[in-house]
Amino acid sequence: MLNDYGKDLFKPWRSVSNILLVLAVLFGIALFKLTSSELASWVQAIGSIAAIWGAFAISNSQVERQIQQANQRALDKSNAYFAVVKCAWDHARTMRELVEKQPPVGVFKESWNLVFRDLFNSSLSSLKSLPAYELGNYDLVIFHNGMLAAMSNMSSRVTSFLGADAFIEQELVLMYEDLFAQSQLAEHYWGEYELVFNAKFGNA
Hints:
The protein is an all-alpha fold. It contains 6 helices and no strands.
């Protein structure tokens, strides 16, 4: 039993127009009352044409299938890149929700060490390893780089603050303000990235 691919290849041969064409040719040949050698020549000629036609149909079908597969691979890759940037924005947004609550330094430190540090490091690693030149659009590259910069600045700011020998309340407030500002930048870059992506790939 033929699969869908096989049916696609043989579908042209089973069409009503092709069947009628073959019958018309056979009828026309019969009217001429050809000798056996002449009939053999006609059969050979028709067979050659059919072989060429069949080879063309198969080749054309294979090319179309290869194009479809290439387009699907490109779309899958773009969706994976989209997921990397969205994941980074999700982490930046969660950080902003934390700093908006202005938690004591001890609570923030525990939250960072237990949760946010690994999430940020994972997102930064993914953003850095993402081949920006394969994003397929100048704006996507710009917004990806902007997201990477915002995430890097947030991580560096926290690491610098927690690495200090002593904590000063005013420095904690300034760090929260910096983190909030960087998260706003991340939100901007993510929003623009999403808009361009959807315009290019149609919410794929």
